[in-house]
Specification:
This protein is mostly helical. The chain has four helices and two strands, in the order H-H-H-H-E-E. It has one domain (2-90). The chain is 47% helix and 10% strand. A two-stranded antiparallel sheet has the order 1-2.
């Protein structure tokens, strides 16, 4: 695990999940990998992981209400997804 931590530090990962977010991911999806796959994202692409964190944070904010749909803006190379761009339709 130590190698993984140092790798993250070397690669300059800034916005990791908080402990509360990690608990939510584990409870609802089992792992970040499974969460990303469920949203057709890759754990190997940092852009996808950034987008996954934005999606997870939006879902966590809306965790107490039933969600009907989530709409994401079109993907563009080199452009990071921000949680304010994710639209949630509640029932």
């Amino acid at each position: 695990m130590e190698g993984s931590k140092s790798r993250h530090k070397r690669l300059g990962h800034r916005r990791q999940y908080t402990p509360e977010e990690e608990k939510w991911l584990k409870k609802n999806y089992g792992s970040e990998y499974k969460f990303l796959r469920a949203h057709r994202l890759s754990i190997y692409k940092e852009e996808d992981r950034d987008g996954g964190r934005a999606i997870a944070r939006t879902l966590i904010r809306h965790d107490d209400c039933p969600i009907v749909a989530i709409a994401l803006p079109p993907r563009r190379a080199g452009r990071k997804l921000h949680h304010s761009e994710i639209y949630v339709a509640e029932s």
